[in-house]
Amino acid sequence: MTGVTSPPLSLEEAQRRLMWLAPQLPVEHRATAECAGFYLAHPISAHRAQPAAPLSAMDGYALRAADLPGPWTVVGESAAGHPFAGTVEAGQAVRISTGAILPAGADMVLLQEDAGRQHDTVTLTGTPPDPTGRHIRPAGMDFADGAPLLPAGLRLGAAQIALAIAGGHQYLRVRRPVNLTVIDSGDELGRPGQPLAPHQIPASNGPMLAAMAATMPVKITRIGPVPDDLPSLATALEAAHGADIVVTSGGASVGDHDLVRPALEAAGATIDFWRVAIKPGKPLLVARRNRPNNATQVILGLPGNPASAFVTGFLFLLPLLRAALGAESPLPRTIPARLAHGMPAGGSRTEFLRAHWDGASVSLDPLQDSGALSPLARANALVVRAARAPAVPAGTDVPVYLLETGGIA
Ligand SMILES: Nc1nc2c(c(=O)[nH]1)N[C@H]1C(S)=C(S)[C@@H](COP(=O)(O)OP(=O)(O)OC[C@H]3O[C@@H](n4cnc5c(N)ncnc54)[C@H](O)[C@@H]3O)O[C@H]1N2
Ligand code: MOO
């Protein structure tokens, strides 16, 4: 373990260690349409070609380019789902609609806008006609039968689900949802709906962390607020025994009432590391303990200050959940963004400054106190300021995590 006297870890080292600890959840078959937000456990290939036969991309007439400039006799129709059964012969045309199979014998589609029709006769009106093949989607244009479709570790969003379905996959192999327990702890925390005395505040970290995790396939159990005493924390940790991952907030620092670390040790957990050189979020604690089924439970002790809990939730909890779900790239990624104003020099820790990005430039919130929630609620970005970074002028590109996308590019 990184002990109480050890210096805080760097962000990179702490994230590396945590990713290594991520539980490997069992793989299950899940209906593809129910897989949004899951990560593919195995690569998939196409079980069919798309399209399976050449299709028209436009409404018009299927005919033979050699017969240009026409006229043609319409001998039938090919509609989407209703192919033309015959073959297009010299001088013949088949009425065709978008998505319909190009009939045998035809090698071009004359656009409806470039054609005149009188009874069964079609004439060319457009000049010049579009090149042969222009409005035809060849068989296998999107993917050939057997072609690789999606790699393992990829997050399944709307387009990936559509592609898997089109490729003939009714079921996909993904890791099962994570069982996550979220614990609020602190004597000052009121219960939801309870009238609050001035020494009390509503427990907002638990709902916030649950909302962050709820963007992923996670089954969430919430416990607390738990009082700051060892027996109460022991009861809460016992209740959380079945979870894959436990996240606490508060009680992670060095005060007399910061009991998460001793409570974890009393519950038989091994502390992997404590404290990371980041601001906010320094007192982050990572531990693990064995579960009855021999799997390992990972426990994240996040600092109690709301901005600290959010930033460590973003930098550690969400990546841990992604890694457990089988993500190929679980860590968030920054993009460069132009500063709207100058930024002072950094301190001894890497900082994550609440900021707003308007699509052109990024502005830091004037209130950066880690106890404040309003700047967090206004922010859609975190600006990263490296430890001991020099002051920089307006217009400088700085690394930024975009919060709306979870920092996943
Ligand atoms: N002497 C030192 N004091 C502190 C240090 C230090 O190194 N030396 N570190 C500071 C830093 S940095 C942080 S961050 C905080 C973290 O403290 P804890 O994790 O022990 O959190 P608490 O003291 O329990 O609470 C801090 C703050 O957050 C509020 N809180 C806690 N839980 C919740 C919740 N579920 N919902 C909403 N708000 C919550 C709590 O009321 C406090 O205001 O320690 C510094 N101190
Ligand atoms: O590191 Mo603490 O999280 O600043 O307030």
TrEMBL record:
Residues 181-323 form the MoaB/Mog domain. The keyword Magnesium applies. Its cofactor is Mg(2+). Pathway: Cofactor biosynthesis; molybdopterin biosynthesis. The keyword Ribosomal protein does not apply. InterPro entries: MoaB/Mog-like_dom_sf, MoaB/Mog_dom, MoCF_biosynth_CS, MoeA-like, MoeA_C_domain_IV, MoeA_C_domain_IV_sf, MoeA_linker/N, MoeA_linker/N_sf. It is an enzyme of class 2 (transferase). Pfam families: MoCF_biosynth, MoeA_C, MoeA_N. It catalyses: adenylyl-molybdopterin + molybdate = Mo-molybdopterin + AMP + H(+). Catalyzes the insertion of molybdate into adenylated molybdopterin with the concomitant release of AMP. This is Molybdopterin molybdenumtransferase. It comes from Novosphingobium cyanobacteriorum.
